[in-house]
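Thread: pyridoxal-5'-phosphate complex, take 2
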Amino acid sequence: MAATTFYDLDHIRANFPILCQTVHGHPLAFLDNAASTQKPADVTMATKTFYETGYANVHRGAYWLSEQATIQYEGARERVRAFINARRVQEIVFTRGATESINLVAATWGQTCLEAGDEVVLTWLEHHSNIVPWQMLASAKGLILKVVPVDDDGRFLWEAYQSLLSSRTRFVSVTHVSNVLGTLLPVKDIVAAAHAVGAKVLVDGCQAVPHMAVDVCDIDCDFYVFSGHKLYGPTGIGVLYGREVLLQEMPPYQGGGDMIASVTFEKPSWAGLPYKFEAGTPAVAQAIGLAAAINYIESIGLRAIAVHEADLLNYATQRLAEIRGVRLLGPAQIKTSVLSFTLNGVHPHDIATIVDRYGVAIRAGHHCAQPLMQRFGIPASARASFGLYNTRAEADALADALESVRGIFGP
Ligand code: PLP
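Output below.
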């Protein structure tokens, strides 16, 4: 797609054929982008072209097609490196997604570098993917998990964080942006404070990379993870950025082909970075699709996307705030494109089911963040989340559909 000089929504939406359909007789308003985004034609075309004209396994073949596939796969790695401004491609490991990236760090760095009594700091804003791997490791190794609280507006409490840090803190694992509230965390400061006590830091960037430029050198984190499918790319591909010196020290995650230098029955030896962490045939087409997604969003510009999404979020916030009985969760000032809410007397699942009858796709449930739901004293919420292709008309469709829900359930 050619670079757009202004935010040409019609042009952008034309690249997402899936959006041009009706659902239950209404135009589809896809507002579940925090769960997964739709794919532009650039991405589906890149993977289709690869399968139709360039497909082969990578790294192993001596023949032309395999060499070409390897060039494309490694080109995708370089594309990701530049996207998050990592120093070297060796620091970019392809995984199945953010969940696998976090599990990899817990099972390798965590397994070898943490000992009983060591403390790992998380926040109440974490997705289960950034809680459960640490709980599993904690119960296996006798680690202590500490959790930074949030206030009623969903804000990260800086003083509370600082009071949890000590010489016992070995690892801090925080989300960059909350998938439930959209709260943006001050990750650069979080990293600096953790480093000051000698702890390493992982930042879960799943909900950040689609909405803002990320620079891992500037953040200075030790690990940064995200999933391709939330970034307009394919499913089945994710990224683990790791500081080279740490990746060097870490043992492999899985054993198999591609991750070894040599194998004898006495002893295997490991391949260099990043291949040590990529056992088996990788998701080649998905990596190529992810690179196409990055090209696509950069052709629009992350700054332009952020401005557009901020306008949508403000507009939708105002519209929903006008609806009697709507409670907006975590109205932190510094947030990205997520709007979680409840409606008095109506279960969030009913909200999502009814607004779907008006073509509006939103999420309902605990959003894989049950501790945060507990913090707000609710079992579930409804969540609208915006992407680069959403419109004010879609925010209106949500608000109008919610008025209908209210009408059904009474005043
Ligand atoms: N972290 C955050 C903040 C998320 O929002 C999600 C998914 O919703 C994940 C991690 C897990 O991502 P995946 O399921 O793609 O591994």
